[in-house]
Amino acid sequence: MEHIIIKAEGTENYGSMDMSPECRPRPLSDRNSYGEYVIIAKTIFLGPHWPLFAATLIGFNVFAYIMMRQQKALGHDITFGIIITLAQSILYLGVGLANPGIANDSQLNQKYLGQLYSLSNRPQQRNVWYCEKCQKIQPARSDHCPFCRVCITNYDHHCPWTGKCIGGENLFHFWAFLISTIIFFTYFVTILLNQREDAKNQ
């Protein structure tokens, strides 16, 4: 356990509690920080690895197009292939463009200003915690991503293939995308295996 006194930037008053030797003042920032994210029209959040996200999206669709073109040339129905490709692309865009849950609640700074409290080593066991990088008091179950350089609420992991973090705001889209991707590859791998089997029988 580490006891911390939170200090507002530019102030000298640490509250009425006496500072014990292990207490030290921490600066607080009220500025909204988006780290490495590029915000477009206040609704699109591109993460630091957005080129990899774009390349993966294009790769999925080029692969599907080639496979379905072959199937159509052989006279097979490609309706399901079109549906699963569209569904996977939409869900992938939902993950890659949505706000993952960037923690920018400045009100927590004021709520806990000057208070002495204990922080456990694990963010999941804290009511709030202080981020050294963002210089803010952050909500429980948030964590700082070293790639995005910002705290994410309900942080799960950083996924370079989606170009960003997976957090509270895009976790559902992420799992839906994974399920659609499993169906996507199961469908097209089955087609490839059938083509291989047909080639052997000829």
Can you walk me through this structure?
It is a single chain. This protein is of the alpha+beta class and 202 residues long. The chain has a domain at 33-123 and 158-201. It has four helices and eleven strands; from the N terminus they run ββββαααβββββββα. The chain has helices at 50-73, 79-97, 107-111, 171-201, and strands spanning 2-6, 25-26, 38-40, 44-46, 116-119, 128-131, 136-139, 143-145, 150-152, 157-159, 164-166. A three-stranded mixed sheet has the order 2-1-5, with no helix packed on it. Strands 3-4 form a two-stranded antiparallel sheet. A two-stranded antiparallel ribbon has the order 6-7. The longest helix has 31 residues, at 171-201. The termini are far apart. The model is unreliable at 1-23 and 118-125 (pLDDT under 50). Its EC number is 2.3.1.225. Residues 130-193 form the Palmitoyltransferase DHHC domain. It is a multi-pass membrane protein. GO terms for molecular function: protein-cysteine S-palmitoyltransferase activity. Keywords: Acyltransferase, Membrane, Transferase, Transmembrane, Transmembrane helix.
Topology overview:
Layout: E1 2-6, E2 25-26, E3 38-40, E4 44-46, H1 50-73, H2 79-97, H3 107-111, E5 116-119, E6 128-131, E7 136-139, E8 143-145, E9 150-152, E10 157-159, E11 164-166, H4 171-201
Helix pairs in contact: 1-2, 2-4
| Main beta sheet | 3 strands, mixed
Overall mean pLDDT? 79
What's the N-to-C terminus distance?
Answer: 72 Å
Overall geometry: elongated
Structural class: alpha+beta
Number of helices: 4
Strand order of the largest sheet: 2-1-5
The helix/strand series, from N terminus to C terminus, equals: EEEEHHHEEEEEEEH
Q: Tell me the radius of gyration.
A: 24 Å
Into which percentage range does the β-strand content fall? 15-25%
User: Low-confidence parts lasting 5 or more residues at pLDDT below 50?
Assistant: 1-23, 118-125
Roughly what percent helix?
25-40%
Q: Tell me how many strands there are.
A: 11
GO biological process, one term: protein targeting to membrane
Membrane topology: Multi-pass membrane protein
Keywords: Acyltransferase, Membrane, Transferase, Transmembrane, Transmembrane helix
InterPro entries: Palmitoyltrfase_DHHC, PFA4/ZDH16/20/ERF2-like
